Amino acid sequence: KQDGLVLDSGASLSLLTESAAARLGVTKIPDAVASAMGLHNTEFPLHFGLAKTLEVGGVTLTNVPFGILA
To answer: How does residue 63 score in pLDDT terms, banded at 50, 70 and 90?
Structure first.
């Protein structure tokens, strides 16, 4: 099964789960961790990573940043 991916071109940062980041080859940036607030004031860690290259609609992007959710 191949999972789809939706990118929001107007977002400040696109988010991926850890498993999606691993499948896409997104490399976590060591020590680049923040916290984010979810529903009901639940705080969770947010790691940051980079995709060296990402092809979207026939266009190749380089060094694409992502937030990575556990």
So the answer is: very high
Q: At 35, phi and psi to the nearest 5? A: -125, 150
Q: What pTM did the predictor assign?
A: 0.76
Cβ-proximal residues to 53 (8 Å cutoff; 6+ apart), any chain: 60, 61, 62, 64
Mean pLDDT across the stretch 50-68?
A: 90
Instruction: Please report the DSSP string for the chain in residue order.
Output: --------TTSSSEEEEHHHHHHHTPEEEEEEEEEEE-GGG-EEEEEEEEEEEEEETTEEEEEEEEEEE-
Distance CA(58)–CA(63), nearest Å, equals 16
